């Protein structure tokens, strides 16, 4: 991972594609209470994941920490 | 069949949780720690959803909703604190 923005992209994939598809698989349980709660969690994640990602990227831009590549190990 | 699929998914998410913990231990930057804590919160949300399917109870998803709310607030506060020196 070269910089903070690439790590932010990967973290957004994990939250947006991973967690939301696992929550979407609640349709297979055929339980109305489970599906309702899963839809609530999906709506909350879709609402808040871009906001927190924007806050992290804005912090990286403000501190200029993202433009320096860490040394390879 | 259903138990096998949920068991495989639970095992894989637990391995991802261990990998995220190792990444948190290896992080050298404050911002990287904020990103990894957000990632660990999403992994635990997915684990709670799988546990709710495994046990056929919907209460674990309420815990997942509360964890999503807490992780959102903590990530926002930490990022704003790192950017400005104060959360507000």
Describe the structure.
The complex is a heterodimer of chains A (73) and B (88). Chain A is 73% helix and 0% strand. With 73 residues, chain A is mostly helical. In chain A, helix 1 (4-24) runs antiparallel to helix 2 (32-63). The longest helix of chain A is centred in the middle third of the chain and has 32 residues, at 32-63. Chain A starts with a helix and ends in a 10-residue tail after the last helix. Chain B is mostly helical. In chain B, helix 2 packs antiparallel against helix 3. The longest helix of chain B is centred in the middle third of the chain and has 26 residues, at 30-55. Chain A binds chain B through residues 4, 7-8, 11, 14-15, 18-19, 22-23, 25-26, 28-29, 31, 33-34, 36-38, 40-41, 44-45, 48, 51-52, 55-56, 58-60, 62-63, 65-66, 70, and chain B through 2, 9, 28-29, 31-32, 34-36, 38-39, 42-43, 45-46, 49-50, 52-53, 56, 58, 61-62, 64-65, 68-69, 72, 75-76, 79-80, 82-84.
Q: Could you list some keywords that capture this structure?
A:
heterodimer; A: 73 residues; mainly alpha; 2 helices; 73% helix; elongated; B: 88 residues; 3 helices; 0% strand; flat
């Amino acid at each position: 991972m070269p910089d903070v923005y690439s790590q932010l992209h990967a973290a957004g994939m994990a939250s947006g594609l991973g967690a939301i598809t696992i929550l979407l698989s609640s349709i297979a349980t055929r339980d109305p209470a489970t599906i309702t709660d899963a839809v609530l969690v999906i709506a909350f994640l879709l609402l808040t994941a871009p906001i927190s990602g924007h806050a992290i990227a804005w912090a990286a831009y403000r501190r200029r920490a993202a433009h320096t590549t860490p040394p390879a190990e | 069949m259903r138990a096998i699929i949920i068991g495989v998914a639970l095992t894989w998410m637990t391995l991802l949780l261990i990998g995220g913990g190792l990444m948190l231990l290896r992080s050298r930057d404050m911002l990287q720690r904020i990103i990894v804590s957000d990632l660990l919160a999403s992994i635990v949300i997915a684990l709670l959803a799988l546990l709710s399917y495994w046990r056929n109870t919907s209460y674990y998803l309420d815990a997942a909703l509360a964890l999503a709310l807490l992780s959102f607030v903590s990530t926002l506060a930490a990022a704003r604190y790192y950017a400005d020196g104060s959360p507000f």
